[in-house]
Specification:
The protein is mainly α. It has one helix and no strands.
Length: 98
């Protein structure tokens, strides 16, 4: 019985050691998971910030382009009006010359 008891004790000790090793591995893995999770959260927040900045810049550029086009359209309208007036005056001068 003593021999059997000793064998069982050794087996229990080995099992306890295995359990302890496994617990340590689990702790290490959990710490790594937490670390990786923090890193990803930081990266995601940076990416979100950059994305927001890009969106803001895009809107600003779009508004500038819209304003530029409107200004150019206004200039074109003025140019067309001036051309029409100049053409009419030249026609009048041509009629007077004839």
């Amino acid at each position: 019985m003593i021999e059997e008891n000793n064998k069982d004790s050794k087996s229990i000790e080995e099992t306890i050691k295995k359990i302890q090793k496994t617990k340590n591995k689990i702790k290490i893995i959990c710490l790594k998971i937490i670390q990786i999770k923090k890193e990803f959260e930081n990266k995601n927040s940076k990416i979100k910030r950059e994305n927001d900045e890009i969106s803001q810049n895009f809107l600003e550029l779009k508004n500038k382009m819209f304003e530029f086009r409107n200004n150019e359209r206004k200039k074109l309208v003025v140019l067309v009006d001036n051309t029409k007036i100049a053409t009419e005056k030249l026609k009048e001068i041509l009629e007077l010359g004839e």
